[in-house]
């Protein structure tokens, strides 16, 4: 049976799709690898959220084509530009859309006969519950996709057009997968979707994330549960209470707000209300919560007044974690033709100012942790022999880490008590208390 390689780009949600593709291949007897040098057939699961992500995916595809590989392009880039890919890179073997990856075996059987296109015009994401994911990264944490697609139409976002409307998985299927992950040794599960807080709205006719959290909290052997990508209008009290009351749910809320000025929020087709009240309410409902958010600067129509409003908001709210993105003009989004477009130099200056502000906030927050003892999940050992860990306030790969020097043997996935003894801009230094 043929050996197939896979290269995965993009977000955690795309990573889950890559693992499902590997699972489908394994179920059908294919030998799989993550080293493209070991085979002549390579699947590239691509990202197309912003221009830079597209460039990274295209660069990867071209390198493999130049190396003489048979390349199958899957994911968002294939969904967005199927005809262009075929025209511009005629050496490709196939393009497979975001919701068509379950047909990957049929595609593989056809590529020797010529180019194959398997891209649904109206994508509808249905999670293949009969497939066991072949995980690319096994360690302390694992992502668990609870839904895909999106019912919102934010002005800057192409995702709903690439993945269709919101589709939740059944609760019992999610719980079963979580239990299976724990049996494999996973300590922390990270719930992901385009909007996790909308979970269940389509199949249960109301948001059900709070109930899902309470059921997941009962799984024996599970250490932490983390929620990513909350939506402002879905942060209801029943959800906040579940986060506060479930001991395994980390007190961490990832809620991309995108802006603070109501005029900008309306232009973005986002909920336009006072986010100060929301943030204060979250902090009141969940003691010691860490809040991560993200903002877009340089969106069409953003004036100096709008940006200064955002700066004041960031200064006042003092978010524990914050990302800033320069607006990326994407064809197919409502904002593409909006005027006036903000210049790249101005956008970059606004980005740098906000990030400089957040650096000061992060430094202060980290220094306040010195002397405290915190539960930390062990990630791995560094090349220098240090132990790399994370607090509950840090999501993997996007937030900070705790660097620990110790002679004690620790196991990735274990949760240890760590005393914080020093701090840098975004990371911490700690010692084991035992």
SSE blueprint and pairings:
Elements: E1 3-8, H1 12-27, E2 31-33, E3 41-46, H2 51-66, E4 70-75, H3 76-80, H4 82-88, E5 94-96, H5 104-110, E6 116-118, E7 141-145, E8 147-148, H6 159-163, E9 167-168, H7 171-183, E10 188-192, H8 209-216, E11 224-227, H9 237-245, E12 252-254, H10 262-267, H11 275-285, E13 290-297, H12 304-317, E14 321-326, H13 344-368, E15 373-381, E16 387-391, E17 402-404, E18 415-423, E19 428-432
Parallel strand pairs: 1-2, 1-3, 3-4, 4-5, 5-6, 7-10, 10-11, 12-13, 13-14, 17-19
Antiparallel strand pairs: 8-9, 15-16, 15-18, 16-17, 18-19
Helix pairs in contact: 8-9, 12-13
Walk me through this protein's architecture:
It is built from 13 helices and 19 strands. Strands 2-1-3-4-5-6 form a six-stranded parallel beta sheet, sandwiched between helices. It has 434 residues and is an alpha/beta fold. The model has no long low-confidence stretch (mean pLDDT 95). It folds into three domains: 116 residues, Methylthiotransferase, N-terminal domain (Rossmann fold); 228 residues, pyruvate-formate lyase- activating enzyme, CATH 3.80.30; 60 residues, OB fold (Dihydrolipoamide Acetyltransferase, E2P) (Beta Barrel). A hairpin with a 4-residue loop joins β18 and β19.
Index terms:
pyruvate-formate lyase- activating enzyme; Rossmann fold; alpha/beta; 434 residues; 13 helices; 3 domains
Low-confidence stretches: none
Tally the helices. 13
The helix content, as a percent range, equals 25-40%
Shape: globular
């Amino acid at each position: 049976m043929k050996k197939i390689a896979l290269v995965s780009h993009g977000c955690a949600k795309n990573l889950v799709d890559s693992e499902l593709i590997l699972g489908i291949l394994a179920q059908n007897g294919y030998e799989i690898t993550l080293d493209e040098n070991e085979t002549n057939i390579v699947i590239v699961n691509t990202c197309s959220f912003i221009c830079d992500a597209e460039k990274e995916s295209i660069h990867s595809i071209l390198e493999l084509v130049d190396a003489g590989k048979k390349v199958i392009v899957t994911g968002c880039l294939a969904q967005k530009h199927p005809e262009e890919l075929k025209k511009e890179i005629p050496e490709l073997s196939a393009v497979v859309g975001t919701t068509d990856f379950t047909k990957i075996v049929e595609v593989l059987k056809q590529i020797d006969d010529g180019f194959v296109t398997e891209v649904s015009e109206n994508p509808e994401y249905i999670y293949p519950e009969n497939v066991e994911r072949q995980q690319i990264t096994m360690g302390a944490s694992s992502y668990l996709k609870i839904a895909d697609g999106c019912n919102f139409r934010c002005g800057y976002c192409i995702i709903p057009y690439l993945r269709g409307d919101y589709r939740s998985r059944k609760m019992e299927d999610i719980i079963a997968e979580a239990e299976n992950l724990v049996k494999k040794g996973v300590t922390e599960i990270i719930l992901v979707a385009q909007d996790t807080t909308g979970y269940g709205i389509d199949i249960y006719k109301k948001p059900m994330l709070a109930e899902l959290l309470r059921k997941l909290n009962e799984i024996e052997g599970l250490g932490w549960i983390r929620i990513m990508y909350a939506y402002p209008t879905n942060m209801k009290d029943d959800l906040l209470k579940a986060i506060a009351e479930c001991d395994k749910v980390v007190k961490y809320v990832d809620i991309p707000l995108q802006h603070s000025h109501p005029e900008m929020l309306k232009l973005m087709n986002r909920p336009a209300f006072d986010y100060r009240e929301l943030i204060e309410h979250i902090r009141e409902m969940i003691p010691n919560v860490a809040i991560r958010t993200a903002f877009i600067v340089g969106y069409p129509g953003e004036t100096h007044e709008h940006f200064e409003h955002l700066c004041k908001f960031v200064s006042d709210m003092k978010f524990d974690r914050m990302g800033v993105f320069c607006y990326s003009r994407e064809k197919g989004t409502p904002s593409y033709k909006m005027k006036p477009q903000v210049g790249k130099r101005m956008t970059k200056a606004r980005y740098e100012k906000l990030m400089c502000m957040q650096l000061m906030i992060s430094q202060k927050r980290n220094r306040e942790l010195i002397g405290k003892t915190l539960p930390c999940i062990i990630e791995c050992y560094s090349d220098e022999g240090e132990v790399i860990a994370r607090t509950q306030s840090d999501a993997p790969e996007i937030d900070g880490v705790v660097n620990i020097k110790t002679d004690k043997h620790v196991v990735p996935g274990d949760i240890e008590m760590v005393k914080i003894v020093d701090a840098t801009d975004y990371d911490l230094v700690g010692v084991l208390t035992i």
